[in-house]
Amino acid sequence: MCRWIAYSGTPVLLSRVLFQPEHSLIDQSLHSRMGVETTNGDGFGVGWYPQEGADPAVLRDVGPAWNNRNLQEIAHHTRSGLFFGHIRASTGTAVQQSNCHPFRHGRWLWMHNGLISEFRRIRRRLALAVDPERFADIEGSTDSEVMFHLAMTFGLTDDPPGAVARMAGFVETTAQDHGIAHPLQMTIAVSDGRRIWAFRYSSEGRSRSLYVTTRIEALRALHPEVWFLHELSDETRLVVSEPLGGMVGAWNEVPESSYGVIEPGGGTLHDFRPAHAAGRTA
């Protein structure tokens, strides 16, 4: 599996989040505590919005994150108020740049931890459901990228929660037709540059870990001695596959089968359920 982080809030150097915490994403690439694999060295990616209203920039590479000099150079000199970071552990597809997250389409970023079980058996049927105008945009061979373009096909740009629900329902229905039990495992982050949607769901109800930070003003009250908390706006949030450190009260588990929305002014939490075709169940 993989590890990822999504940041929204006060513009900071990417390195402040990617490298500096006690159990940073870079540390997790070697020493993951909650992932299926301890080491996540099958590539990495970062995607960031350089300014409000701009399309995101993306850096992806096939090497491990812990010794990539280009990542260090960019992270120590780039500020952003909304960015993604992802470290990959392949579930069977090739280690190549086009398979590294996050994936981008226009202003949209998408990254995923999890898998579609027996993806090879249903890959063709899933891919053929992608809008023909978007099909050529699929560059790699991962289930994650197919999920992204299915969500785009099902209306991601207008209704992200509904599109992800329709994508998940279509995957489960297709897998059911092929006798595949518990086909979908996903924690997903998607952004349009202003908001972040984060989803936690699995067909078997045992989803991969996902956490969100406590409100900054509450953390300041708990830890007045932590200087960097005073530099962050009250709206700043992090969503992570596993906590970046042991600060008491900092991390809250995202509930099973739910999604959150982080946007200017705050955040909200909602139940998540796949939307299956009429008359079908997963």
Which key terms come to mind for this protein?
6-stranded antiparallel sheet; 7-stranded antiparallel sheet; 282 residues; 8 helices; Glutamine Phosphoribosylpyrophosphate, subunit 1, domain 1; alpha+beta; globular
Question: What is this structure's SSE topology?
Answer:
Blueprint: E1 3-13, H1 14-18, H2 25-31, E2 44-48, E3 57-61, H3 69-75, E4 79-87, E5 103-105, E6 108-116, H4 119-128, H5 132-135, H6 143-153, H7 160-177, E7 184-191, E8 196-202, E9 211-213, H8 216-222, E10 237-240, E11 251-253, E12 258-263, E13 266-271
Helix pairs in contact: 4-6, 6-7
The CATH architecture designation is 4-Layer Sandwich
SS element count, helices: 8
On the 0 to 100 scale, the average pLDDT is: 93
Radius of gyration: 18 Å
| Spatial gap, N to C terminus | 23 Å
CATH topology: Glutamine Phosphoribosylpyrophosphate, subunit 1, domain 1
Q: Would you mind describing this structure in some detail?
A:
This protein has 282 residues and is of the alpha+beta class. The protein has one domain (3-271): Glutamine Phosphoribosylpyrophosphate, subunit 1, domain 1 (4-Layer Sandwich). Helix content is 24%, strand content 28%. The strands form 2 sheets. A 7-stranded antiparallel beta sheet has the order 3-2-4-1-10-9-11. It has a 6-stranded antiparallel beta sheet with strand order 5-6-7-8-12-13. A hairpin with a 2-residue loop joins β12 (258-263) and β13 (266-271). α4 (119-128) runs parallel beside α6 (143-153) and α6 packs across α7. The protein starts with a strand and ends in an 11-residue tail after the last strand. The mean pLDDT is 93.
